[in-house]
Design brief:
The structure holds two protein chains of two kinds. By secondary structure, chain A is of the alpha+beta class. Chain A has three domains: about 5-120, Butyryl-Coa Dehydrogenase, subunit A, domain 1 (Orthogonal Bundle); about 120-225, Butyryl-CoA Dehydrogenase, subunit A, domain 2, CATH 2.40.110.10; about 230-375, Up-down Bundle (Butyryl-CoA Dehydrogenase, subunit A, domain 3), CATH 1.20.140. Chain A is about 50% helix and about 15% strand. Chain A has a four-stranded mixed beta sheet with strand order 1-4-5-8. In chain A, strands 2-3-7-6 form a four-stranded antiparallel beta sheet, with no helix packed on it. Chain A has a two-stranded antiparallel sheet with strand order 9-10. In chain A, strand 9 and strand 10 form a beta hairpin. Chain B is an alpha+beta fold. Chain B is about 45% helix and about 15% strand. In chain B, a hairpin with a 5-residue loop joins strand 6 and strand 7. Chain B is globular and about 75 Å long. The model of chain B has no long low-confidence stretch (mean pLDDT about 95). Classes of the chains: A alpha+beta, B alpha+beta. Chains A and B meet through helix 7, helix 8, helix 9 and helix 11 of A and helix 9, helix 10 and helix 13 of B.
Chain lengths: ~375, ~400
């Protein structure tokens, strides 16, 4: 048992924290939001220069060779700043798919491009009828042309509006919810038959609805083994849950600090509201919840290296429940203690609240993961 | 960063587990497995077995018989012992008085009392709370007036658990009623509890059992050399004692034990034609508690390993998180175990049961004891600083409001 960061990890944390403190104030973020992409292309290049975009990739692919703890440190900082860039979509989600399932050629082509900031990807798996069921895939890929032809639709594809390429799951065999028969493909955003409609999520990050109509792709577009894509999807989802846990911790820290500060300065009935025990105890409850949530986010990140798949899945599910409940409690109380100002668009706390809400609804919400754990009780 | 135990820590856990398995007397194990609290003789017997192994006072400095374990090892030992379930170390002797004597006691006090603590030759109890001094401990009014080489003690203490089975009591008394601050007029005394002038009145708690007492002092003579620390500086001693009690504060092993009991009984009872353990709502409750348990376990690792690194002796204010979340979990798991019994959660029939049964009926006894645990564990969020007081501590020490 060891909770210490290595010297390298501390350096990484310091430099990311400093960058975000310098460049990602809530006011600066408003200007990034107004850019065409809805995020800052300049910051994206800064992330590349700092090595963040290649953080989890091997050094031979222009990466940093970092593990889940390194990603966790970055995501915490992004969570505190409410970073808008497609880091989760490109580096964590699509990056994990390519890292775990990509051929040597695919990795050599794509990973350095991601690391240098030249290539953005999105992970297009979820479908409207599937809700959180990872095996429910109706999009099809049939043999034809020089390889495969894809048909179907994907929903809430994070940063799908600006992605250069998609990692798309499609059914190559089996029934609609069969575990076998799912295959992953790399699909160019500008390929024939690809249409997307971009929009903003509730937290102001971007997403897209994707439709695929007779999209031809070559044999070299297959990512991993034909029909065996589910394991990769699961690896991507687990990495996403871990990364978002760290992001939620960052958001909780920011909300707690903001609320504490507000309780010191906001005066009612002739004294700061933080002098009232009911407010103090609520802040203590938020603190306890945040620390429990932090423990669970750590569990998620550290579990990614667990080899036993069942054990890993169980820890990840526990973590999603644990940090999801913590984030919901902390964010709801943050608004409550701010009172009216917390309800306004111009104040930051409501933005953190909405980021936490989006995180909770990604890759299975609390009820979904709790039901999975309940099914395994022995 | 790694949440897993190191191979050395795993080996240590296995060693502890094996020792408990091989050395805990079968009759004690069986009673505790059915949910009965250890009897006095059970605790004494187990403490003496641990003492022979050198494990009865793990938190003491090595020169006084401690084990030299790291905080992580101590945590592992406490959890394994609770989860076995084996009688817990007698906290009055081991986590409270021992470290206090080592820190503040005279040579004579150490020589006389310390060796008898791990073997429980003397069973101690704690005389802190009073009818008018609960969470606000410093408002205590039991007086000790100095008459030459002794004090005369008058007043009363309440919630004194195990006073009726104790040999000695350590006591907070007011020696200077005129001190500028209430905390400055308090002293810490040691006295035999079975003596003229001391009356013990049992308080039966809501579980129907007698753990608690009220203790009255009527002109009780205490020699001055039975005072620990300086006169009127007893508050420092009390603060040291209360701050020393933190490693096992989450009582995770006990929660694990209650969860295991709930699951075990849930296999024996039916709901809607199937074993209760297969019921969706029951499983959901188990899953939620297991998530909470996991979070607390990791938070505890974080607090304990931070403590291992700093070692300035001050309790981490985050240990208040462990107290609050740990007692919520104790109450949650004990509530679950009680609910499993269904109608069997209601009877209070120890006597009748003993007369009726030729052999133990695990479900009947387990249900009754689970209700008893549930009732008694309502106290967990009250004793040792109520959960509201813990939030006050967090407010001051962490939030700085």
């Amino acid at each position: 048992m060891d909770f210490e960061l290595s010297d390298e990890q501390r350096l990484l944390k310091d430099s990311v924290d400093r960058l975000m403190a310098d460049r990602y104030s809530f006011e600066a973020r408003k200007t990034y939001l107004k850019a065409e992409n809805g995020w800052s292309a300049e910051l994206w290049q800064q992330y590349a220069e700092l090595g963040l975009l290649g953080l989890p990739f091997a050094e031979e692919h222009g990466g940093f060779g970092g593990g889940p703890v390194e990603v966790m440190l970055v995501m915490e900082a992004f969570g505190r700043a409410l970073a808008l860039e497609p880091y989760l979509a490109t580096v964590v989600l699509a990056g994990t798919a390519i890292r775990t399932a990509g051929s040597a050629d695919q990795q050599a082509e794509l990973l350095p491009a991601i690391a240098e900031g030249r290539l953005k990807l999105a992970f297009a798996h979820g479908e409207r009828q599937a809700r959180y069921d990872l095996t429910d895939v109706m999009t099809t890929a049939k043999r034809g042309g020089k390889g495969w032809v894809l048909d179907g639709a994907k929903t809430v594809v994070f940063h799908g509006d600006t992605a250069d390429k998609f990692v798309v799951s499609a059914r190559t065999a089996g029934a609609q919810d069969a575990a076998e028969g799912i295959t992953l493909f790399l699909v160019d955003a500008h390929a024939d038959g690809v249409a997307r409609r971009g929009y903003m999520l509730r937290d102001e990050t971007r997403a897209a609805e994707l439709s695929l109509t007779n999209v031809p792709v070559g044999e070299d577009a297959v990512l991993g083994e034909v029909g065996k894509g589910l394991a990769t999807v699961q690896a991507v989802v687990e990495a996403g849950i871990a990364a978002m846990g760290a992001e939620a911790v960052g958001a909780m820290e920011a909300m707690h600090a903001m609320t504490l500060d507000y309780s010191r300065t906001r005066e009612q009935f002739g004294r700061p509201i933080g002098q009232n025990q009911v407010v103090q105890h609520r802040l203590a409850d938020m603190l306890m919840s945040m620390e429990q949530g932090r423990s669970m986010a750590m569990l998620a990140s550290i579990s990614l290296t667990e080899r036993d798949a069942a054990e890993r899945a169980r820890s990840i599910a526990m973590a999603k429940v644990g940090y999801g409940q913590a984030a919901r409690f902390v964010s709801q109380q943050a608004i409550q203690l701010h009172g009216g100002i917390g309800m306004t668009e111009e104040y930051a706390v409501g933005h953190y609240f909405r980021r936490c809400m989006v995180i909770e609804h990604t890759f299975g919400d609390t009820a979904y993961h709790l039901a999975r754990l309940a099914a395994q009780v022995a | 960063m790694d949440l897993r135990f190191t191979p050395e820590e795993v080996a240590f856990r296995d060693e502890v587990r094996a020792f408990i398995r091989e050395n805990l007397p079968a009759d004690i194990r069986e009673r505790m497995r059915l949910g009965y609290r250890p009897r006095k003789e059970d605790t004494v017997a187990w403490m003496r077995i641990l003492h022979k192994k050198g494990w009865a006072c793990p938190n003491w400095p090595v020169e006084y018989g401690g084990t030299g374990w790291s905080p992580v090892q101590r945590m592992i030992f406490i959890e394994e012992n609770q989860a076995a379930p084996a009688p817990e170390l007698l906290s009055f002797n081991i986590t409270m008085l021992g470290p206090v004597l080592i820190q503040f006691g005279t040579e004579e006090q150490k020589r006389r009392f310390l060796p008898r603590l791990p073997t429980v030759e003397d069973w101690w109890c704690q005389g802190f709370s009073e009818p008018g001094a609960g969470s606000d401990l410093a408002s205590l009014r039991t007086r000790a007036e100095r008459h030459g080489d002794h004090y005369i003690v008058n007043g009363s203490k309440i919630w004194t658990s195990t006073a009726h089975m104790a040999d000695w009591i350590f006591l907070l008394v007011r020696t200077n009623p005129n001190a500028a601050k209430r905390q400055e007029g308090i002293s810490f005394l040691l006295l035999p509890i079975k003596q003229p002038g001391i009356t013990i009145r049992p308080i039966v708690s809501i579980d129907g059992a007698h753990h608690l007492n009220e203790v009255f002092f009527d002109n009780v003579k205490v020699p001055v050399d039975m005072r620990v620390g300086e006169e009127n500086r007893g508050w420092d001693v009390a603060k040291y004692l209360l701050g020393n009690e933190r490693t096992g504060i989450a009582r995770l092993g006990k929660s694990r034990e209650r969860m295991a009991a709930a699951k075990s009984m849930a296999r024996m009872v039916k709901a809607n034609g199937r074993p209760l353990i297969e019921d969706d709502d029951f499983r959901r409750r188990v899953a939620q508690l297991e998530v909470d348990m996991k979070a607390l376990q990791i938070t505890q690792y974080r607090v304990v390993s931070a403590y291992a690194k700093q070692r300035d002796g001050r309790p981490d204010p985050l240990s208040s998180v462990l107290k609050v979340k740990g007692t919520e979990l104790l109450q949650g798991t004990s509530e679950l175990a009680m609910d499993v019994g269904g109608p069997l959660a209601m009877p209070h029939w120890s006597q009748e049961l003993a007369e009726l049964a030729n052999e133990p009926d695990e479900l009947l006894e387990g249900s009754e004891q689970s209700t008893g645990e549930y009732l008694m564990l309502r106290a967990a969020s009250i004793y040792g600083g109520t959960n509201e007081i813990q939030k006050n501590i967090l407010t001051k020490a962490v939030l700085r409001l």
